[in-house]
């Protein structure tokens, strides 16, 4: 239950005076549905006003405060002609201009013959001073109501800064002091003040310095947010670790057999990752480990060896892939190896149905099956294991924390928790990894298998498309395969598919039946068919939308062409490029772009040409685009921060991480005075899901 002290902050926006249904919708759009969301919506700019006694051209285009004498109203009957009001500032004349001004309203605000204080931007219109729509109008008695400094907020059409401020400022007087959850010495060192003060300050800038991300008020709030995030993850991590796991101890017989069956020996990097995984499996606690490795670094082999080790120790193991195609591919590469050493292996996807499915599930439940490869279909309730010991989740960023946990609950209660290994090919910058996977231990595969040739990457204007298409004939003669990826169309899969179909027709015209098509709207068996034909070589050019993004392995593929590459994220381009040059043949990647490119777009394509190091690319991507867009926030499963900015606050993140660990080491149940305050923090940032992981009792 949310603590009472926070009740009012979680009231809906429309509880505020003057905020009806229309405005609350707009506020909800930019900030969120509750009062607290208005507090998290920080200003990004500042108006600084100057008091002017007399008009002077040096003040044109600046924000000024003036005392005016209202002289004469000139209403307008024509919508295209503005309403004008002639005024005097001392002896100088000034015209106030209102578009669609309402006469009754303006006459009430600015009565003839009276003085008023106004603010706004001074303009020069053909030699006369003018002001369009003053932002404040006050009587002289009330002149102090116009502030010298005013915060400027990110807004949306139909919502003015004044309206937002009016809403936001109603909350301040109701703010309560919250018990302090931060460490006193940290506060002192960082010169932070308490929460309430920091909120008000962050909304009340008086100079540009106040917008600096390292401004104490903003830093304190950012730290609070990061601490809530890290505390929540740490609670999950500890709760997982606390659950007794099992010691998956083998005797190396099957593992050494499978090593012999593999057509290669592991790289040193694969070996050391495997060693860390093995240590976790052998230990009597639950493993919750992230295996990070660039595309093509050989995660699958590591996964296979870990699974075989689990089988050797008498348990079942499963690997879950994000797509049907990938699950099939894993199955195709793993099953023959498993068969060689006498391990049974099944595939469970959404397409397994009827009697066949019943039979597989029965074998699984009886323990007649050792390895299971599957998709989300593994989550179905009637999928139960005889004795699941190890669950591996491939390409994690499509799944969330909850799915991780759901899978790990498929084990036998009496045998303790399932060991969980999450594999991701998305090189996540260290900072992001902490916020999303802070609940896990991390292993990284730092090198690629030997013999990979660098991929020749070039950026070309889309105007060269015809000659690029014609140039493919040489590749086709040597039996090489070509991916042709069509533009990403934000928010419209229909348009995306239309573009792919058009390109398909065009290439078919050149190369006939050697061209195939695959896109997200195709039925999955047709997708598989297309992929299958591409693998077997019946199709040599595969026109695709980004469905091929994840993990598909076709050794003969050597050319990757990406249209409108400027629309893709760097991480995504890197993933796509990783699809070629896997089979020992040199690969090439053509990034087609529509000129003219902006500076950032140029810089991004240049990075792609300069490096194949996924981590370096990801760091650059973060720098150029910001965390939100990095992986496509929506589907990434990465947390979205309201105040913290991972670029400028990475220092704070590291502190928050250590702080969270220390806190729970000393006060596992958050019972101490500070612990109680920290519970409030979790609720404040809506991370209260984590409360249920507090050690009960
Ligand atoms: P990832 O899943 O990390 O992108 P994969 O596991 O699919 O990479 O491996 C990419 C390719 O490299 C596969 O064809 C695989 O057979 C091969 N491979 C993996 N490990 C090695 C190794 N140690 N030596 C040579 N080739 C390897
Ligand atoms: Mg893979």
Please render the helix and strand layout as text.
Layout: H1 21-30, H2 35-40, E1 45-48, E2 50-51, E3 63-74, E4 83-89, E5 92-98, H3 103-109, E6 115-121, E7 123-125, E8 128-132, E9 136-138, E10 149-152, H4 161-171, H5 184-190, H6 195-202, H7 216-242, H8 253-261, H9 268-282, E11 288-293, H10 299-312, E12 316-320, H11 324-340, E13 345-348, H12 354-366, E14 371-374, E15 388-394, H13 401-408, E16 419-424, H14 430-437, E17 441-445, E18 456-461, H15 465-477, E19 481-485, H16 493-511, E20 515-518, H17 524-536, E21 541-544, E22 557-562, H18 570-577, E23 588-593, H19 599-610, H20 614-625, H21 627-630, H22 633-636, H23 650-666, H24 673-684
Parallel strand pairs: 2-3, 5-8, 11-16, 11-17, 12-14, 12-15, 13-14, 15-16, 18-23, 19-21, 19-22, 20-21, 22-23
Antiparallel strand pairs: 1-10, 3-4, 3-6, 4-5, 6-9, 7-8
Helix pairs in contact: 6-7, 7-14, 7-23, 8-10, 9-10, 18-20, 19-20
Adenosine-5'-diphosphate (ADP) binds at residues 264, 266-267, 270, 293, 295-301, 425, 449, 551, 553, 582.
Please give a structural write-up.
With 697 residues, the chain is an alpha/beta fold. The protein folds into four domains: 50-146, Nucleic acid-binding proteins (OB fold (Dihydrolipoamide Acetyltransferase, E2P)), CATH 2.40.50; 219-242 and 645-696, no CATH class; 253-445, P-loop containing nucleotide triphosphate hydrolases (Rossmann fold, 3-Layer(aba) Sandwich), CATH 3.40.50.300; 456-611, P-loop containing nucleotide triphosphate hydrolases (Rossmann fold). It contains 24 helices and 23 strands. Strand 7 (123-125) and strand 8 form a beta hairpin. The structure holds adenosine-5'-diphosphate (ADP) and magnesium ion.
């Amino acid at each position: 239950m949310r603590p009472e002290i926070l009740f009012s902050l979680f009231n809906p926006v429309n509880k505020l005076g003057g905020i009806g249904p229309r405005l609350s919708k707009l506020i909800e759009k930019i900030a969120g549905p509750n009062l607290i969301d208005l507090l998290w919506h920080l200003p990004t700019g500042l108006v600084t006003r100057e008091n002017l006694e007399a008009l002077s051209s040096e003040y044109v285009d600046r924000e000024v405060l003036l005392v005016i004498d209202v002289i004469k109203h000139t209403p307008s009957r024509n919508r295209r002609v503005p309403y004008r009001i002639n005024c005097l500032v001392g002896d100088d004349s000034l015209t106030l201009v209102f578009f669609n001004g309402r006469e009754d309203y303006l006459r009430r605000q600015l009565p003839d013959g009276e003085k008023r204080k106004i603010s706004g931007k001074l303009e020069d219109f053909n030699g006369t001073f003018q002001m369009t729509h003053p932002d404040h109008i006050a009587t002289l008695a009330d002149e102090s109501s116009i502030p010298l400094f005013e915060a400027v907020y990110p807004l949306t059409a139909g919502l003015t800064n004044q309206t937002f401020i009016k809403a936001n400022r109603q909350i301040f007087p109701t703010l309560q002091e919250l018990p302090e959850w931060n460490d006193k010495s940290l506060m002192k060192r960082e010169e932070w003040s308490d929460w309430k003060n920091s909120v008000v300050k962050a909304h009340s800038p008086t100079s540009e310095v106040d917008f600096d991300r390292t401004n104490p008020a903003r830093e304190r709030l950012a730290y609070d947010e990061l601490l809530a995030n890290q505390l929540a993850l740490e609670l999950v991590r500890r709760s997982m670790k606390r659950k007794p796991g099992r010691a998956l101890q083998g005797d190396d017989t099957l593992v050494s057999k499978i090593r012999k069956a593999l057509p290669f020996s592991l790289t040193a990097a694969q070996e050391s990752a495997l060693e860390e995984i093995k240590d976790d499996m052998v230990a009597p606690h639950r493993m919750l480990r992230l295996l990070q490795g660039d595309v093509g670094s050989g995660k699958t082999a590591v996964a296979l060896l870990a699974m075989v080790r689990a089988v050797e120790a008498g348990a079942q193991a499963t690997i879950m892939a994000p797509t049907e195609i990938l699950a099939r591919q894993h199955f195709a590469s793993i099953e023959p190896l498993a068969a060689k050493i006498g391990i049974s292996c099944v595939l469970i996807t959404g397409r397994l149905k009827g009697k066949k499915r019943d039979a597989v599930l029965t074998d699984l439940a009886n323990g007649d099956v050792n390895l299971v490869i599957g998709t989300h279909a593994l989550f179905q309730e009637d999928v139960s294991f005889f004795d699941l010991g190890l669950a591996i989740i491939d390409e994690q960023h499509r799944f969330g924390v909850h799915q991780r946990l759901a899978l790990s609950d498929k084990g036998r209660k009496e045998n303790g928790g399932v060991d969980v290994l999450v594999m991701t090919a998305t090189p996540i910058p260290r900072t992001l990894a902490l916020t999303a996977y802070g609940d896990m231990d991390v292993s990284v595969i730092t090198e690629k298998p030997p013999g990979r040739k660098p991929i020749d990457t070039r950026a070309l204007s889309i105007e060269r498309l015809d000659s690029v298409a014609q140039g493919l004939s040489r590749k086709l003669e040597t039996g090489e395969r070509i991916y042709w990826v069509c533009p990403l169309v934000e928010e419209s899969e229909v348009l995306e598919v239309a573009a792919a179909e058009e390109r398909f027709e065009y290439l078919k015209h050149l190369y006939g039946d050697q061209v195939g098509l695959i896109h997200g709207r195709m039925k999955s068996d047709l997708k598989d068919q297309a992929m299958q034909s591409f693998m077997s070589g019946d199709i040599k050019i595969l026109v695709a939308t980004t469905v091929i993004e994840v993990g598909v392995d076709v050794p003969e593929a050597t050319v990757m062409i990406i249209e409108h590459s400027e629309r893709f994220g760097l991480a995504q381009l890197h993933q796509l490029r990783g699809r070629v040059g896997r089979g020992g043949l040199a690969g090439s990647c053509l990034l087609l772009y529509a000129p003219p490119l902006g500076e950032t777009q140029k810089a991004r394509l240049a990075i792609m040409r300069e490096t194949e190091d996924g981590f370096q690319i990801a760091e650059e991507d973060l720098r150029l685009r910001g965390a939100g867009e990095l992986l496509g926030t929506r589907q990434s499963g990465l947390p979205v921060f309201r105040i913290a900015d991972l670029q400028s606050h990475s220092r704070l993140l590291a502190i928050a991480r250590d702080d969270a660990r220390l806190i729970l080491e000393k006060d596992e149940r958050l019972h101490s005075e500070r612990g109680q305050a920290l519970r409030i923090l979790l609720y404040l940032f809506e991370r209260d899901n984590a409360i249920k992981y507090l050690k009960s009792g």
